[in-house]
Amino acid sequence: VSQQLKEEIRRGFAGLEDPLAALLAMLENSSDWKGKGHSLGYYITTELQLWIKEHPAVPQSGIQLKELQARVLRILSQCPANLLDPLISIYQLHTADRNYLLEHVSHLYLKGDYKEAAVLSIKLKLQPDQDVEKMCIPLLLQDKANVVEDYVGEYPELQSKLLQILDSWCEPGVNIRDVTRPYQGLSRYKPEKFNHRTLSKLVFRLLDRFHVDPALCPNVVNQRHLRTLNYLFYKRFVEKTMTEENWADHVQSTAGERRCLQGHLVQLLLRHCDRPAAARWARHWGLPADLLPPGLAEELPQLHTQERVEEATKAGNYEDSKKKDYYQLPIPRENIHFLQTWEETLQCWEKVLQPGQVVGIDMEWKPSFGMVGKPRVALLQMAVKDEVFLLDLPRLLEQEEVEEEKEKLPRFIQMLYSDAAITKLGYGMSGDLSSLAATCSALKDTEKQQHGVVDLLTVDKQVDGLSPEHSHKERGVRQQQKGLSLLVHHVLGKPLDKTEQLSNWEKRPLREEQILYAASDAYCLLEIYERLCKDPESFGLSSDLMESLVGKRSIKPRAKKQLNKQEALSPSGQQCQGSQMETPHAPAPVSPREFSVVCDNMLQGLGRYLRCLGVDVRMLDNEDDHRKAAEIARQEGRVILTSGLPYQTLQSQVGEGRCFSVNCSEKAKEQALQVLKHFNVQVSLSDIFSRCQ
Q: Which parts of the sequence are annotated with region: Disordered (predicted)?
C-alpha cells in the first residue's frame, strides 16, 4: 500500500468523531472486503488497528461498545480470515459477555455454518465451554480435520476427550453409520471420507501432533497391530521377502502380551500355512486351550518337532540361491567395521573426511509399521573405496550422554554433509536426513547445510533400461525389485537382496546377514556412481554427469562452454574416467585469513559473501577498468576472481592459477562454494564474520 494512501486513511480517522462506528458502517454497506486477498476494506481496518494503538483514548466502553460488538459479531461469519483478528482486537470482543458470544456461535452452528462457528470459537477461545463432540463431528464429516486439529490445539483435556471419542467409534461391533446418521442432510457431506481407516489415520496424526500416550486409544492401536500382523504375514508367506528371524522379531514385538493378537496370528497360520508353525507360536506364548482351534492343543508336541525340521531344510537351500541371484559385496568381510565407541569411529572420520573423497551413505531403523513418531536411526553406514563403516548410532549417542560430550558425533556428521569437497552419495537422502534429525536434534539443520550431495534417486528416474550386457529379452522385462534394488539391477546386473530390509535394526548384536545387507546398501552406491561416470550414455544419461547426477542442494555445475583447466567433472572434484575413481592433485588447505582475492566489478555480491566467511577481499568499483584487478593482484599477491570475456585478458597478466573464472549466472553463495572448493579454503566457525564489525 502506498504511503500516500496510509496517510489519507489516518487523516480520515482523525477527522471522525467515532472511528469505530464509522468503520462498521463502511463494512456493513460495502462488500469489497468479503472476497479473498487484501481489499481496501482490509487496509482501512488494519490501519485503524495500528492507529488505535497510537491513540489509546479512542476505544469505546460501556453500552456503546456493547452495541458495536453486537453489530460486528453479525458480520464476522462473512469475514475472510485476514479480517477476523483485526476486528476482534478493535472491538475488544475478548472482553464481551461470554454467554452472549457462546449464544452467537450456537446460532451459527444451528444455521449449519459449522466451520465458521468453530473458527470464531477458536479466535475467541470459547472451546472449554463447548461440547467437543458436537462441534467436531460435522467438521469431520465435511472433511475439515485441519479445523478440528486447530479447535483442540491449545487444550490438552479436549485433545484427550476427542481422541477417546474417535477411539470409541473404532471399537469392534460399532457401526460407523450409526454415528453419522443424524448428519445425513449436512451440506458438503463426504461419508466416504469417514470410515474406520480414515479415523485411524486421524487418531494417529493427533497422537503424534499432541504427544498423547497411545494407550488412551486401545481400539485404534489394536486395529493397527492387527493390520501389521496381516502385513508381516503377507511379506513372509506370500511375497516371501522376509526371513524367519526378522518375521519372528516383528511378530513378537507387535503381538506382545495381547492374547487377542496372539490368537489372531495362530488362526492366520492355520488358515494359510501349516499346523506346525501355528503350534510353535501357540507353545511359545503358552496360549490356553480355549483360544486354540479344536484338536491343535493335543497335537502341539509332535507338530513343533516337524516344523523345526522343515525350517532347517529351507535355511540350507537359501544361502546358495542368494549368492547366485543377488548383488554381492566385492570387498572382504574384514573390511566391514562395526563401530560402537568414539575411539573406534576416529578411524572412520580419518578416511571419510578427506577432500576429494566419495562416500556412500545409508541409514537403517526399526520399522514402525505406522505407529506414532518418526523412526530413529539405529545404524549409519558409510562406504569408501574398499571399506565400509557401520556406526551404532544409539550406542554412540548414549556414550556421549554419559561422557557429557554431546557435540562430538553431530559435529563430525555436519562437517561431512557441509563439506563441498567430499561427494556424498545416497538414495532418497531427504527421508534419511529427516530420520537423522529425529534421532539427534543437533542435526536438524543438516539438510539445509548440505553441499556436494548426489541423490541417486534422481538418477533412478532417468536411467534408461538395463545395463548394456543384458540380453534383449532381459531388457524388455522389468523385475519385481523396486527402488535402489532395481537401480542396482539396471546398472550392475543383479538386484540387492532386500530380505533384511525390515529387520529389527535396534536389536543387538546384529546378525551377520544384517551386517552384510547394511554394508551392501552403502557400498553399491559407490559402484553405481563409478559405472555411471564411466559410461553415462549407455544408461540414457547426459554425458555431462553434473547435469544428471547432482541433486537440488548440490553445488551447481558451470556451463560447459566455460570449463577450462579448472574444471572438475564431479561434485567432489574427482574425474570419473576409466574404472578408477581418481583424485586430481588438490592445493594444500588454507584458512580464509590466508586467502586474498580481488573481485571484478561484476562479482561484488560474491566479494561480500566471501568477506562474511573471513576471506581478505578487495572489490573493483563499478567505474573501474577490469585491468585494474591485475594491477592489484600483482602488487598485493591476490587471486583475481572474474567472469566472462575479462578472464581471457586477465589470466595472461598474472601467474598460472592466480585468476579464476566464476559463473556469473549463479547466486553469490554458489559462486563462493565454487571458489572455496577450487582453492581448498577450509572455513571454520571462528572465521565467519571475523572481518565484519
A: 560-587
Q: What is the rounded distance in angstroms from the CA atom of residue 427 to the CA atom of residue 448?
A: 17
Among 678, 643, 673, which Cα is nearest to 657's? 678
Using DSSP bridges, classify how beta strands 581-582 and 575-576 pair: parallel, antiparallel or unpaired: antiparallel
Grid cell, residue 202, equals: 486421524
Strand 453-455 relative to strand 575-576: parallel, antiparallel, unpaired?
unpaired
More confident call, 554 vs 522: 522
Strands annotated E in 452-532: 453-455
Please tell me the predicted confidence (pLDDT) of residue 331.
96
- Separation between Cα atoms, residue 605 and residue 612, nearest integer Å: 11
Alpha-carbon distance of 37 to 390, in angstroms, equals: 53
Q: Is 358 exposed, middle or buried (0-12, 13-18, 19+ CB in 10 A)?
A: buried
Tell me the pLDDT tens digit for each residue of 107-145: 999 998 999 999 999 999 999 999 999 999 999 888 888
Rounded distance, CA 418 to CA 452, Å?
8
Q: Hey, which residues does 337 pair with through a beta bridge?
A: 389
What would the CATH number be for the domain defined by 592-679? 3.40.50
Q: How many CB atoms lie within 10 A of CB 37?
A: 8
Tell me what pLDDT residue 61 has.
65
Q: Which residues of 524-554 are buried (b: 16+ CB within 10 A; e: fewer)?
A: bbbbbbbbbbeebebbebeeebbebbbbebb
- Of the candidate ranges 42-46, 168-172, 421-425, 487-491, the one whose mean pLDDT is the lowest: 42-46
For residue 584, is it left (φ>0), alpha (ψ between -120 and 50) or beta? beta
Query: Which amino acid belongs to residue 607?
Result: G
CA 453, chain centre distance (Å)? 16
Residue 603 contacts residue 671 (beta carbons within 8 Å): yes
- Closest by CA to 610, choosing from 621, 601, 598, 620, is 598
- What's the rounded mean pLDDT across residues 639-647? 85
- Ordered by start, the domain boundaries in the chain are 3-166, 220-294, 336-464+483-548, 592-679
At 59, is the pLDDT very low, low, confident or very high (cuts 50, 70, 90)? low
Amino acid symbol at 653: Q
Determine the CATH number of domain 336-464+483-548: 3.30.420.10
Distance CA 589, CA 609 (A): 20
Question: Whole-number mean pLDDT of the chain?
Answer: 82
Q: Please tell me the predicted confidence (pLDDT) of residue 599.
A: 93
